[in-house]
């Protein structure tokens, strides 16, 4: 009887360990999927496609905001990966992302709004703020691509001036680098002529 009990106990412990391991793995996968930006973006796009009326527009604004931030991050990642000047662009993007998090929270709140009057009053302001963020990101992307930047709305206005100052500094640095390269090229040309 004790041999049978030992076998049953061993099988029970194997089952408990297997079930425990399965639960731990399933939980890790669930958390990973839940944190996935791709999955969250897909869910958001699906919700927008299935929604009607003003909620659909609010979800569309969230999609646009997320897309703008993703493209800004891609541009800054590209700038960080290159050897060219990048200045304060990563810090500025982090500030834009931080302000956008508050804007996204407002948009999430608007998606749950049931009062059509309140929703109609808040939508133009939300649309303008998303436009402002998208404009900021466009300027950052333009700076990375070739050298310029742009921003608005209280905090966004302060960000605009910082981006403009950074773009000027980057342009001045590039011009100075070109001038130094031209000067070095002239010196090597004169040295080879002698």
Structural summary, described in words:
Keywords: Membrane, Transmembrane, Transmembrane helix. This is DUF2746 domain-containing protein. The chain crosses the membrane at residues 6-30. It comes from Cryobacterium algoricola. This protein is mostly helical and 194 residues long. The protein contains six helices and no strands. Helix 2 (37-50) runs antiparallel to helix 3 (53-81). It is flat. The N and C termini lie far apart (105 Å). The relative contact order is 0.08.
Task: Provide a compact summary of the structure.
The protein has 194 residues and is mainly alpha-helical. The chain has six helices and no strands.
Mean pLDDT: 81
Share of helical residues: over 70%
Largest sheet: none
User: Element order, helices and strands?
Assistant: HHHHHH
Number of helices: 6
- Point out poorly predicted stretches: 148-152
- Beta-strand content: under 5%
Q: Nearest-angstrom radius of gyration?
A: 27 Å
Distance between the termini: 105 Å
Number of strands: 0
Oligomer: single chain
Structural class: mainly alpha
Organism: Cryobacterium algoricola
Keywords: Membrane, Transmembrane, Transmembrane helix
Transmembrane segments: 6-30
Protein name: DUF2746 domain-containing protein
